[in-house]
Amino acid sequence: MRIYIISLILLLSGHQMMAQTKGKITAPQVPCNGSADDVPGIYTDHNNGKYGRVILKGTAVEKAAMMKNLIAIEKLEEASRKGFKLTGSAARVSFARYDNSNYGKNIYARYGYQLGVYAYVCHVTEHVPKIVDEYKTVFRVDINPYLSPVGVKPVGTGEFSMKYGNPRYDIADDVTSKYPNPISKYFSEEVLLAGRSDDYKNKHADFLKLNNGNGYVENWQAGNRYDNHGPNSYQWIDRHYFITKPGVPLLIPVSRKQYLEDMLVYLELEKANFELLNSKQLSEIATQTAEWAKKKRDALESDKLAYPKFYEVKKAKLKDLLTKQKNEWLQKPAVVDQNTQLKESEKILEALGRFYDEEAEYKSALYVLNPAYFISNNGQSAKTLFLEVQFRYEINKDRGFSARLFNNWEKNFAMDVLKKMAE
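Now predict its structure.
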């Protein structure tokens, strides 16, 4: 029996780079006691994904280009494990197409590689390894990832009221297409770091790492980066890299001049949508006779009369800053207030045009996509513009497979080859 088990282990170990049976796989049926961390692992490539082989959507040219890039990444990962013994888990590759990423006027296909690592557990009564249904350790490469500016709302944009206690008006980003909203294209450091870094002590440094494609950031899913970790503690860490063209940042600062000009455009959108919202709310209670309806009608009519003055004062203030401030002041980065408590018109007017030298609580430096980076794809939508690399790994005495795999990847994965893909 012992010889049979040893032979089985050697056989599985020697074939761990080979795809197993289609779709469903089972862990090696060898005895285990409490932990299955040292049981030989299983690897399946993209031809034998957990849910079958994925057919990438797109034109024939797109599909060929995407498959070429994804297989190249798959081979890089496989090469990084040359001489490495995968244990305690089933590592399964899948490819995916995630629609498109819209970088302003430039559209690129977004697609990615994933290696999901499913832990083995030792069955408490059968005493043989089983594969868990969900992974917590995963390696991903996202080609042309989506960058979302959602969440940046400088004071004076979005929700406001004319007077405290009166109805509020929520100005959507694109209710009226006649007035495009340049403010909705703004990024902040926090927006770029969201879900990627929780290192609040080094926010700006982490932002620069991503923006310049230099180094990695980490977001701790479990545990705390600033705690002391003992042998029985558990850490679940999400590491991210941006692989970009050398010397060209993804985002560039918005100048005060650009911000003020964009606010003038936004003001026209606000005016058009205020009128729509005010009229809509009036029409909704036009036939109501209750006291609450009468009070709301009075408030809405009052707002209707008050808004034009608010609009003119706001517009004049923006224009005054643009014409009277020196060019040196206008070209400085726009660091603006983002205090969401300032929603009344009087407070908004006080804060409008007020800039700061550095970021702080409720104050954000604003950025936009760098047009020098996000160039036209020239008909090659699957071309690699930049990549996001993610490795989510676990550190725990019962999750040794994860740390071993991550440490080997960190040491042996050829990141420089990915950098060449983005050049």
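The mean pLDDT is 89.
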